[in-house]
Amino acid sequence: MNPPTKIISSETDDNLFLPNSCDVYTVFLGILVTELLAFVFVLVPLTDWDYTKLVTDLAMVSLFMQWVTLGSMGLLCLVRRWLSHNNIIAAFITYLLILMMTWLVSEIAWRLNLSSSSHYLLLGRNLGISAIISAIALRYFYVQFQWKKETKANANSRAQALQARIRPHFLFNSMNTIASLIRFQPEKAEYVVEEFAELFRASLADTKTFVTFKKELTLCQQYLDIEALRFGGRLQLVWKVDNIP
After folding, report:
1. Would you place residue 96 in the very low, low, confident or very high pLDDT band (cuts 50, 70, 90)?
2. Which of 159, 177, 184, 191 is the most buried (most CB within 10 A)?
3. Residue 8 has pLDDT above 60, yes or no
């Protein structure tokens, strides 16, 4: 009896439209995009090439924006598991967390005299910019999530349609192979029945779950073992899977 297959679960990532803020690659992209936005905010009001002022402004804006980005991503990483049940609630909570982090960093910046603007002007400007950028980002993430979901659904539909066309032919050919072996090679016929039962059981499994590569390779070998009885020497295959984990 084969040991149970370990299923890799990705239910949260499949149901939630937000990128995984716990992932290092996602954090790196967040830092990179934030830094590009900081460059834009510094270059837009630029009137002359005062490099000292340019570097100083870029450092201050980058520091502020990176704290907002990293703080927001950290909070989202902590609450991610509770956001996967409803994308509308997830978007609302995410929006509030980003604005809350923007307000907190703005308050710290004002109390440390890092800005020459008045208190309410600083808060209003930063919260307004954060609200607009966050809304655009959330909209982008949702559209991308819907596109990936639709692409995956279309791929599954095509795969199921192909399976529906192939399965009757394989079933018919397998039955003929078993019938031809029963009289003269009953042991081999029994082996084919067991292999066929294993393949049929796998075809009835949930296609949304993942299986290990070893299990998938075993199923392919079982399928080809049955086909080899029908094709004989015409079916030749060389396996090159040593480097695949």
Report:
1. very high
2. 177
3. no
φ, ψ at 210 (rounded to 5°): -100, 150
The Cα 144–Cα 16 span in angstroms is 11
pLDDT at 1 over 50: no
Could you tell me how far CA 53 lies from the centroid of its own chain?
41
pLDDT tens by residue, 56-65: 888 999 999 9
Domain edges within the chain: 11-153, 155-234
